[in-house]
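ok so i was messing around last nite and threw this chain in just to see what happens. nothing serious, just curious
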Amino acid sequence: MGLKVYNTLTRQKEEFKPLREGFVGIYVCGPTVYSHSHIGHGKSYVSFDVIVRYLRYLGYKVLYVQNITDVGHLLDDGEDRILKQSKVDRVHPMQLAETYTQSYFEDMDRLGVARADISPRATGHITEQVELTRRLVEKGYAYEANGSVYFDVRKFADYGKLSGRNLDDMMEGTRVEARSEKRHPADFALWKKAEPEHIMQWPSPWGQGFPGWHVECSAMSMKYLGESFDIHGGGLDNQFPHHECEIAQSVSATDKPFVKYWMHNNLVTVAGQKMSKSLGNFVTLKDAFRKYDPLVIRFFILQSHYRSTLDFSEDALNGAKAGLEKLVNTMRNLQAELTKADAEKRAETQEVELATYRERFRDAMDDDFNTPQAIAVLFDLAKEINQALNSYKKLSGAELRSVASFLSEAGSTILGIFSEKPDVAVSADGNIQVELIQLLVDLRNEVRKQKLWALSDLIREGLKKAGIAIEDKKDGTFWKKIT
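result:
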């Protein structure tokens, strides 16, 4: 079938064909670093992490750029978010930005999100932003007003195409202030004049000031990926005005197409309402990590398609925890059986139609990175494997090794939902190996057959004290770590 991606700009799925064969340039809007990251940030960056992982799995050389906004993200009243928060915290704005930049990377590392190849900061690219603004002024797309510079949206005919809005709609309900510097209410700031007491300011042809929010992403993405590149991603709430403005200023400055595929992840909700700091209903990742393993949160995120909303609740996270445990336990049991099969030099007596599972998994990921369907394939495979492990017809070492390799490839390399060593259960001293646990489980099964219930209970309780829970089910006996 080949990879297809949903392009927000065209509102349809399209066959993925990068501008340069074998190479993909991708830019994703990074965080504005004025507070700790929340679950909504996790959804966005886990989603794009899997997209980048899968593109690399397909053999593409990927250059992944994700910015850090440490200046210029303006509130409706024109005040910089970081500067405003620095006043509340009574610290220097760059100290604030550095603190939360490190916090962001810590959270992403724990979620298994691979670092971007380049993480440019807005404050490190003031020269590029000034130059882009200057070009737009010279070409007549922008104008200076009292030391600030604004983009004239009426000069760009396609303004609103990405979000499906038009200037007439934007005018409705908008109050034009009598003393406004803007020629049109929808005009946006490329450069803002700084008052003398404003801490974060730089020199420019229009005087001391600081960049607007939108210009940084155009300047940095084009610096590292070229004036036209393959994928631009971000949250759905970035679609307007942020990405709309990026298109307008980038195309106007270069007279070239800006981005081929626009990709937007949907939002996290709480009881159907958008999770956001402004509404006060957000849960930081650090708080979530105190109750749940980061991989459980990652798994929870990937159970929803990146373009679908994700409703956050304790019940949903507990369900994700149980589901991930089933897959991890399958991996552990598989590794234990593989050790036994190798020791027995077991001949092949049963086969798993692994090629079918591979094809189904690939089809799901090729369909606009459909991680819920891909995870469903892993559950189907896990069910068959668990049945096979408890059958009198045993799988051979070669068959077990193939299945383990696929699960590792799909679950670790692509989805990132398995830890590096899912075959090892760690106790207090970190030295209990899965083979020993499985030996005790097998021994317990044998004594149960002999109806030695007291000995069976003794083994169960001993494992429980070591942090291992035993579960007797219709399709066999399974164990898991107690968290």
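not much to say yet. Residues 173-179, 422-432 have pLDDT under 50 and may be disordered.
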